[in-house]
Amino acid sequence: MSSQLDIALDLATIGLPVLPLRAGKRPLRNCPACARSACGDRPHMKAAGPCQCPAPCHGWAAGTTDPDVLTSAAWAGAWRQAHAVAYHPGGAGLTVVDLDNTDAVAWARESLPPTRTVATTRGEHWIYRGAMGSANGVREAVDIKSTSVYARWCGPGTGTMAPLPDAVRALVVKAPRMFRPVPCAVTVPAGGGECRHLSPTYLERGIAMAEQRITEATSAVHATTYRTFLAVLSAHGRCGCLTEAHIRRLFTAAQGKGESLRHCEAAWANARTTLGM
Questions:
Q1: Checking DSSP bridges between strand 116-119 and strand 94-99, what pairing results, if any?
Q2: What is the C-alpha separation between 248 and 216, in angstroms, rounded?
Q3: How far is the C-alpha of 233 from the C-alpha of 194, rounded, in Å?
Q4: Which of 24, 27, 135, 156 has CB atoms 3.0–4.6 Å from 172's, for a disulfide?
Q5: Rounded CA gap, 91 and 87, in Å?
Q6: SS3 101
Q7: Collapsing DSSP states into helix, strand and coil, what is residue 94?
Q8: How far apart are CA 62 and CA 74, in angstroms?
Q9: 124-129 and 162-163 strand pairing
Q10: How many CA atoms lie within 13 A of 35 on its CB side?
Q11: Could you tell me if 221 and 229 are in contact, meaning their C-beta atoms sit under 8 angstroms apart?
């Protein structure tokens, strides 16, 4: 049993979804079936836990607390390659403020409530109880790692873990990047195509419900965004009623939960592909 696997099993017992990292602090490459996004990356849009692949796949989404999975034959090769262990903070209800140099650490000591602190190779991880959307570069040398990302395990650290403060949440509340219209015109199937919406109220209610579903997501934001986009396109995408203004509202809701514009566009494209649009 490797030392990295020993560490992973210990962390799993305290509820941290763990996965192996290869050299360079990177997750293992996706399996052949998922290489180069051949699978559409939809397994990546799951909450923490193994995808349907037998070995670790899709980065943070491979994180698991199941000792049977961690010690399975399918994962044995991964542990032989492992140089470190990572965990999915959001899957354990945690947020890591990754401070990548001494200036960032000095800023945190002046600006954030004290909490559990872990020394890293270049700075510190400040760990809070509570999950939120993740974001890179919220300040110079400061990243937020929580949902849908992994953080390297650098040790238990010192200090008492504090509740996630508003000061940290505020770091990712910023104006979304400019929306790029996503083409949504589709070919109406032969033999029909009349608008099924009896009034504009039907469409408006559907968009409002979709916004609410995304906004109220407390975990698995990637998955919620994709499923919501899929539902909207399924109901409203084939008759020409869905406009750029509607898409913009959905993207804005998702970006407000920490999704990047790139992730929104990818989720929208995957939903259209699933529906054959």
A1: unpaired
A2: 18
A3: 16
A4: 135
A5: 8
A6: coil
A7: strand
A8: 13
A9: parallel
A10: 5
A11: no
Inter-residue contact 253 to 214 (CB < 8 Å): yes
Bridging pattern class, strands 84-87 and 18-22: antiparallel
Structure tokens at 196: 């099924």
CA 261/CA 64 separation, integer angstroms = 28
Phi, psi at residue 148, to the nearest 5°?
60, 30
CA dist 182 and 237 (Å) reads 12
Global pTM reads 0.62
d(CA 196, CA 235): 9
Chunked mean pLDDT (size 10), the chain, 277 residues? 86 95 85 72 47 81 92 92 94 95 96 97 96 88 91 96 94 60 46 56 83 83 87 81 85 85 85 81
Length of the chain: 277
Q: Are strands 162-163 and 18-22 parallel, antiparallel or unpaired?
A: unpaired
Q: Which helix (H) or strand (E) holds 268?
A: helix 261-274
CA distance 147 to 205: 29
Measuring CA to CA, which residue among 43, 164, 42 is closest to residue 92? 164
Q: List all residues 6 or more positions away from 72 whose beta carbon is below 8 Å from its beta carbon.
A: 54
**Terminal-residue alpha carbon distance, the chain:** 49
The strand ranges marked E within the chain are 18-22, 26-27, 84-87, 94-99, 116-119, 124-129, 135-139, 142-145, 151-152, 162-163
